[in-house]
Amino acid sequence: MVTPQFLPIPKAIHALACETISRRVDRLPFTRNDVEITEGIVGITLECLNAEVMRTLPLKTVARGTGTHPGLAECLSERRGSDQGGVAPVIAEVLVNAGLAEPAEVLDTATHTQIRGIRLLPAWTWHIGSGEFSRGGGQYTGGYDAWLARCPVCKTGILGRVTGKRLFGIPPTDFYFDCSHCGAKFTPEKDRFRLVSIARIADPRWRQYLNSSRTPDEWSALIREETPVRQAPSRIATSRYRMASRKPEAPHQTPPVRRPEKSVRPIEGVPVPFSTLRDGSLIVTGTPKTLYFRPVGLRFLRGTRHDLFCQAKRTLRQALDSTAFAGVKPVFVHEYAQYLPLRLGPVTEDLRRKNDPRYRLLLNRYGDADFSSFAMENPEQAQMKGILIVFLQGKLCHVAACHTTFEDLVDHTFGNINADRCYCDGDETACRINSLVTAFRDTPVIWIHELEDDHAIDAAVTDLRNRYLKVPAA
Question: Model-level pTM?
Answer without folding.
Answer: 0.48
